[in-house]
Amino acid sequence: MWNVGYTYFHTGIIRRGGFAMQSVRSSFYQPLDSKSCHVLANALGDTPETVISVHLLRRGLCRAYVAGEPSRFDGAIVQDNFCPAEPMGFGSDPEVLWDLLKSVEGWECVNVASECATDLGEIIEENMGVRVRYYGDVYHILSKPVLNFQNEAVRQLTLDDLNLLESAPTEVQGAGFGSIRNLLSDGVVACAVISGKIVAIAHTSARTNHHADIGVFTLEEWRGRGFATAATAIVAKRVQEAGQTPVWSTGEDNFASLRVAHKLGFTEVLRRTYVIPN
Fold it and tell me: DSSP per residue over 35-83, as a string?
């Protein structure tokens, strides 16, 4: 079991993404095993900012690295198997987070608590010899009954719609559950269907005991028709009926997404920051 999960080695140069990082002595962290991932999920807690990572940890859909014990970690990285370029970092010590990132392959940016983002960025700049930029990730929750928005083209999907969803463009197939079948059986999906084809989707991208993150996408030529709003209203209602709080996270300048969230009654609760080496 990879509880602490590190050994030490001497190294000259570590390479990531084409950049060379000079190191004298570094920690090398191994990914946690399944049992330890569940321990880490419990330690992270069930909150709007952890819902995606906890969902991934419990379903075995990620790689996770910790400094310290999973139950009382000094820092943690959770890397989605299907989106490895954008791992989530937890912990307030930027030196620990940087040490962990050196063991993570394929990352291009990292999402961390805003209070440590600048310090982590400075460490990355110093070690990688590149400039860093920052991008805000805004989290909302829906704490009151969702407003009702209907559209005759929008409906909830079931397992009977498996072939329909599998034949849709990748952008409107949804994600987060390992397969489309799992998404339909364990999640909630609503789509706009035009002439037998899906053109917009809202779905739970992650579910825990108390929260459910909602993702949306509309094909470009079908935007501005209210499909995303109507589909999200269906998903949010089903999530609330299951006793969970809908969560909506989006980039700070994704104004179309922010408008949908506010229209449906979501309110901002926190912000995290992407640290992005250029």
Answer: HHHHHHHHHH-S-TTTHHHHHHHHHT-EEEEEEEETTEEEEEEEEETT-
The per-residue pLDDT for range 120-149, each reduced to its tens digit, is: 999 999 999 999 999 999 999 999 999 999
Q: Please report the domains of the chain, with CATH numbers, ordered by start residue.
A: 6-130 (3.40.630), 154-273 (3.40.630.30)
Q: Which helix (H) or strand (E) holds 275?
A: strand 267-277
What three-state secondary structure class fits 230?
helix
Neighbours of 58 (CB within 10 A): 19
Contacts of 199 (CB under 8 A, 6+ apart): 172, 191, 192, 193, 218, 219, 221, 222, 227
Residues composing the chain = 278
Structure tokens at 263: 């229209």
Distance CA 249, CA 81 (A): 19
Whole-structure pTM over 0.85, yes or no? yes
Q: In the chain, count H helices and then E strands.
A: 8, 15
Closest CA to 274 of 104, 89, 38: 89
* pLDDT value, residue 26: 53
What's 73-103 look like in SS3? EEEEEEEECCCCCCCEEECCCHHHHHHHHCC
- Cβ atoms of 102 and 91 closer than 8 Å: no
- Phi then psi for residue 212, to 5 deg, are -145, 120
Residue among 179, 181, 183 nearest 163 (CA): 181
Q: What pairs with residue 191 in β-bridges? A: 155, 201
d(CA 63, CA 55): 12
